[in-house]
Amino acid sequence: MTAVIERPVLGRPGPADTVRQTLSMAWRQMVRIKHNPFELVDLSLSPVMFLLLFVYVFGGQMAGTTDQYLQYVLGGLIAQNAIFLTMYTGTGINADLRKGVYDRFRSLPIARSAPLAGKIFADLFKQVWSIAIMLGLGILMGFELRSWAGALMATLAIVAFALAISWVSVLMGVLADSEEKVQIYSFVIIMPLTFTSSAFVDISTMPGFMEAWAKVNPVTHLADAMRGLLSFGPIAEPLLWTFAWAVGIFAVTAPLAMRAYRRKMV
Amino acid sequence: MSTDNAIEIEGLTKRFGDLVAVDRIDLTARAGTVLGVLGPNGAGKTTMVRMLATLSRPTAGTARVGGYDIVRDAPEVRSLIGLTGQFAGIDELLTGEENLRFIGRLLGMPTRDAKARARELLAQFNLSDAADKAAKAYSGGMRRRLDLAASLVGRPRILFLDEPTTGLDPRARGELWELVRGLVADGTTVLLTTQYLEEADQLAHEIVVIDQGRTIATGTPTQLKSKIGGQTLRIQPEDHGQLDGLRALVAERFPDLDPIVEAGAITVGVNDDGIMPTLAADLRDRGIALTEFHLGLSSLDEVFLTLTGHRTEADDEAQPEEAAK
Fold first, then answer.
1. Between residues 64 and 93 of chain B, which touch chain A (CB distance below 8 Å)?
2. CB distance B80–A13 less than 8 Å?
3. Which residues of A are less than 8 Å from B46 in CB distance?
4. What is the predicted ipTM?
5. Residue A35: its chain B contacts at CB < 8 A?
6. Could you tell me the CA-to-CA distances from B261 to B237, B241, B257, B264 in Å, in that order?
7. Which position among A205, B83, B158, B230 has the lowest Cβ density within 10 Å, counted as fewest Cβ atoms?
8. pLDDT in tens, B40-49
9. What is the model's pTM?
């Protein structure tokens, strides 16, 4: 009765298809936020709390006045929060993998990388959202922004850095057997990494071995770059180091994550 | 390959370490038919479907889907198939309509076409009223229907359904069967795995029974039923002492059948329900009192008992206890 509708055999997706499919994947993530706006509240709570607690609890002792500490620490807190945010990329991928959503994706004629890339891409929106929240609250608290161009540059730099280090989270998301494990692994790595940097304190006050590590820690470079762009201090050098780290981390973890993802196909 | 065959599998094998999940399976599905793969949990059904749907690579053997090799031509295979797995591949936060529209967009449909296709499928699957509700609010049957619809967005010519009705109530199961029949009428080839003999009987043109990764029987539903008995008659005498006599009586009256004494009752696979009145009269004449006299559809378990001499894995542990009685 009904004619058979023959689907043309599509074959392998090209680069343009990959980009389009990645955007469709990102669209799904945005629709998820639309249906669950609490996710944005959840994302905003921790940066707001960190900012208030660090400035009004530690600020006086750290820098003499809370206002002076605010000028120093906001860039560091933005850097720390950006790194923590990338954890959600891994937990989201882990949940989709376990629920069978990726089985459907992998049975479709789409690029292998599109589901992962789409998730990373959509999560960049959360990065922009968080930096806006922290900058906005910071300014209300008396933060003296160096320039709006700097704020824009800082946002772009955070997005670029997040794009690279998200692959660490993807790798954990693919390898771990539960979301909780992704969270624990991330926490164990991110917490010490962000604290042994210039994010919250002047590293010259640290003992020698710690200072030596803090000097090369990528979080130090990112925090210094944020400080440079948003408040005071050098910009070019920390920014350059930040990108060098980002490229390095990407070059190592992205292929590892893609390999682990393909290996899931046993 | 012959253009009449949508799926051709030769010596397909999958090993996970020492475990052979799929063991040299051969089978073919003619285009436009339903191939039922019947087997208990752990028989290797899902592993086989995952290989055919390009989610997993075979350890040995080959398979062609729509004429394309599942390893070498995986992208082409993916453009021809739809997959509905045991675990729903839908996004619980998205509405039914968004789930389908999302797949349409992924497949490269313009937004308007993706929307139209989503509405069309929702109507076809009787989900229009729930189109704008989040999928997490759907009942089990609605979820399976949405999942099936999601696998059909790209109008696949070959559809893999991995235990599509496991866990559904009889009404939801019947609704899903109707949908599958409609797809086949439109020319889709379906490979369906199931644990239910009734489901394979209802839908499949050809059935393959697998156990522990191996094919143990193939045939049309009619052929299989004549081999194993489509129905099972269970007779339990009040006095256990009469069991052997009763078995002899059944064997004598119906020499084609092979009655088995098990767990204090006689079970026998039958094809002709006319046997009931004949046997009832015999038993009345001999004054044998019964506690059970029951004719029902054979369960997968009974099919296995007939074909392999052992029950499905899950019941193996129960056997020694029964033998001791």
1. 66, 68, 75-76, 78-83, 85-91, 93
2. no
3. none
4. 0.85
5. 93-95, 134
6. 11, 12, 13, 7
7. A205
8. 888 999 999 9
9. 0.82
Residue in A with minimal Cα distance to B17: A266
- Cβ <8 Å between A5 and B155: yes
Mean pLDDT, residues A181-200: 94
Contacts with B150 from chain A: Cβ below 8 Å:
104
Residues of chain B short of pLDDT 70, as ranges, are: 1-3, 229-230, 300-301, 309-325
CB contacts < 8 Å between A and B, how many? 111
Closest alpha carbon to B193 in B179, B207, B205? B207
pLDDT tens profile B81-130: 999 987 778 999 999 999 999 999 999 999 999 999 999 999 999 999 99
Chain B residues 225-254 with a CB less than 8 Å from chain A:
none
Q: In this structure, which amino acid lies at residue A13?
A: P
pLDDT, position B315: 43
- pLDDT for residue B259: 81
Residues of B in contact with A27 (CB under 8 A): 102, 105
